[in-house]
């Protein structure tokens, strides 16, 4: 019963981050001096030392609504809105921006410049100045700001990347309707406009979801997957609701390295956290040229398959044949059909060597030496978007372990850093498997296939299937 309770707790917290991740309208997550920060509506915001366990600690003055943040050079530009969006009884509001050298409140360099207004709306305006999204175009270096809600158009304007103020002589551009909390990103020659569609601020009844369109031009038109213009209400789904969480809103993209991306947003209501609005981080995948949120890895029993050949990660032990043999097609038609039993751990474990055991890759036969139990280790912390896990042969304590020789083996689980693993779903849907640390090594390494049957540790290369793995869920 105790183990079942722990498993239920892990499962419940897996919908969002752990700690106290309570926030509404989170800004894009920023990394600063090894810590992570995000700001929200009406409060300062959250911070995390590892990207998994979040708590209060991010500070920004003036509060306001629906902020965003971006790093430009060695400074951080933070934007927010004052009223607007129906807040305070009207649609009049301002979008403001301010700079800081650091997001760490304990740093002597911490402090914000006076905010400056970059966009405004009147009571009867056909656009609300709220829900800022900041975008620095990697192809031109131009800085853009998008804003607006359901009460009119989503608009964008150009800002000066040096001052953070509005670029002189520019006009607002209408780019979408029927959404809010907009953001623009760039990928592989396309500009994507992300918007939050549906109803906000209604807890467990909120219908928020995140949609997008794309364009070859930074200012649009942004067209969805079936040809609808977002200026006419189009939008392809990016983040829908889940079974125990609803109201996905306020998209943020974090590119960690080639092939490793994250999407951040909030659930308006996480059913397993009292229906509160919480910060969520998921893998960001790209499918057929469109962004889509991946899923958080769930504890369970798995085969671990190399993308190089499709073979399974396994203990280096002798293969034990099952009883029987070939059953031909010539059996009698009236013969009773039965289900054959899987090979059981107790049938073979006595034949395995004790202590540390080698690991290899072989034909996937779903045998006990190929069945890995993968579970989060709550006390081990995590990384941006997930907890560290242990990977053990099911029914044993033989854990996948990184060695000082930059190899892998199975050894009794002790909770050492070389037995803790980070699982990142990559932008193509495959996975990277990376130890928390490798004894005597400071460079980041991951599990790779250097031959069809040989796993080892090496540098991650997104463009090589040697660095990629997939998981097949198994029944107990």
Please describe the topology of this protein.
Elements: H1 2-13, E1 18-19, E2 30-32, E3 35-40, E4 43-48, E5 53-56, E6 65-72, E7 75-83, E8 93-100, E9 116-121, E10 133-136, E11 143-147, E12 154-159, E13 173-176, E14 180-187, E15 190-197, E16 209-215, E17 236-239, E18 245-257, E19 260-270, E20 276-287, E21 290-293, E22 300-306, E23 312-315, H2 345-348, E24 357-362, E25 372-376, E26 382-383, E27 386-387, E28 389-393, E29 398-402, E30 408-412, E31 421-425, E32 431-435, E33 446-451, E34 454-458, E35 469-473
Description:
The chain is mainly beta. The protein folds into 2 domains: 9-293, Glycosyl hydrolase domain, family 43 (Tachylectin-2, Chain A, 5 Propeller), CATH 2.115.10; 300-318 and 342-473, Trefoil (Acidic Fibroblast Growth Factor, subunit A), CATH 2.80.10. It has 2 helices and 35 strands. The strands form 10 sheets. The chain has a 5-stranded mixed sheet, with no helix packed on it. It has a 4-stranded antiparallel sheet with strand order 6-7-8-9, with no helix packed on it. Strands 10-11-12-13 form a 4-stranded antiparallel sheet, with no helix packed on it.
Overall average pLDDT: 93
Structural class: mainly beta
Identify low-pLDDT runs. Answer: 1-14
Strand content: 35-45%
Tally of helical segments: 2
- What best-fitting shape do the alpha-carbon axes yield? elongated
* Corresponding CATH architecture of the largest domain: 5 Propeller
């Amino acid at each position: 019963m105790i183990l079942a309770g722990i498993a239920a707790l892990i499962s419940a917290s897996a919908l969002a981050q752990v700690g106290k991740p309570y926030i509404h309208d989170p800004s894009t997550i920023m990394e600063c001096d090894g810590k992570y920060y995000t700001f929200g509506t009406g409060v300062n915001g959250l911070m995390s030392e590892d990207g998994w366990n979040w708590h209060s600690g991010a500070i920004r003055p003036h509060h306001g609504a629906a902020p965003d943040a971006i790093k430009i050079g060695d400074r951080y530009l933070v934007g927010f809105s004052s009223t607007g969006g129906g807040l305070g009884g009207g649609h009049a509001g301002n979008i403001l921006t301010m700079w800081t050298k650091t997001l760490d409140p304990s740093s002597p360099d911490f402090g914000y410049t006076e905010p400056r207004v970059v966009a405004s709306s009147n009571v009867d305006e056909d656009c609300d100045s709220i829900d800022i999204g900041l975008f620095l175009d990697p192809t031109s270096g131009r800085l853009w700001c998008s804003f607006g809600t359901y009460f009119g158009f989503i608009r964008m304007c150009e800002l000066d990347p040096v001052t953070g103020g509005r670029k002189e002589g520019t006009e607002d551009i209408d780019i979408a309707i029927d959404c809010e909390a907009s953001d623009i990103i760039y990928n592989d020659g396309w500009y994507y406009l992300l918007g939050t569609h549906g109803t906000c601020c209604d807890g467990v009844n909120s219908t928020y979801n995140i949609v997008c369109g794309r364009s070859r031009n930074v200012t649009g038109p942004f067209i969805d997957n079936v040809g609808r213009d977002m200026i006419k209400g189009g939008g392809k789904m990016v983040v829908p609701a889940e079974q125990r969480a609803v109201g996905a809103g306020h998209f943020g993209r974090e590119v960690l390295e080639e092939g490793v991306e994250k999407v951040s947003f909030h659930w308006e209501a996480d059913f397993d956290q009292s229906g509160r609005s919480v910060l969520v981080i998921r893998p960001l995948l790209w499918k057929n040229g469109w962004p889509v949120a991946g899923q958080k890895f769930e504890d369970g029993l798995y085969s671990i398959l190399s993308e190089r050949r499709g073979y399974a990660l396994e203990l280096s032990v002798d293969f034990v044949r099952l009883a029987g043999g070939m059953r031909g097609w010539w059996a009698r038609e009236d013969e009773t059909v039965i289900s054959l039993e899987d090979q059981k751990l107790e049938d073979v474990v006595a034949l395995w060597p004790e202590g540390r055991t080698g690991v290899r890759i072989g034909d996937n036969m779903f045998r006990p030496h190929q069945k890995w139990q993968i579970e989060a280790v709550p006390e081990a912390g995590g990384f941006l978007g997930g907890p560290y896990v242990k990977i053990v042969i099911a029914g044993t304590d033989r854990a996948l372990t990184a060695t000082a020789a930059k190899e892998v083996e199975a050894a009794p689980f002790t909770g050492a850093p070389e037995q803790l693993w980070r699982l990142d779903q990559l932008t193509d849907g495959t996975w990277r498997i990376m130890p928390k640390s490798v004894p005597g090594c400071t460079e980041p390494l991951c599990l790779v296939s250097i031959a069809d049957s040989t796993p080892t540790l090496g540098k991650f290369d997104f463009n090589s299937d040697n660095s990629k793995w997939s998981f097949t869920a198994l029944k107990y």
